Backbone:
């Protein structure tokens, strides 16, 4: 059972187009992964992380330290903001009473 030449003439461009589109899609996907920092995959589907060397690891360490410092600062600012909100929303007479109580406590 042979395939007729007319069918081959019709299917050849379709097969070639699908093949080229597949390769171009793979290249585009790989380029986007590399550009955006996603890991590549080996033939078994396991992620391959590019070796950035010591410089990249040092940058990650410094950024992690800075992140921790900023989080600590943000926590203290949230606490201060809560105090300021409490002062702004409390009744003036209650605030005055608390200040007087603290002043009396300091004098004793």
Residues:
């Amino acid at each position: 059972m042979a395939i007729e030449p007319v069918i081959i003439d019709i299917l050849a461009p379709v097969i070639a187009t699908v093949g080229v589109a597949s390769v171009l899609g793979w290249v585009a996907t790989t380029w986007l992964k590399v550009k955006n920092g996603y890991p590549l995959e080996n033939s078994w589907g396991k992620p391959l992380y590019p070796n950035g060397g010591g410089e990249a690891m040092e940058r990650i360490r410094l950024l992690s330290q800075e992140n921790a410092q900023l989080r600590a600062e943000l926590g203290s600012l949230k606490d201060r903001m809560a105090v300021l909100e409490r002062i702004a929303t409390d009744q003036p007479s209650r605030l005055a009473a608390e200040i007087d109580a603290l002043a009396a406590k300091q004098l004793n």
In short: The helical segments are 5-36, 53-89, 92-107.
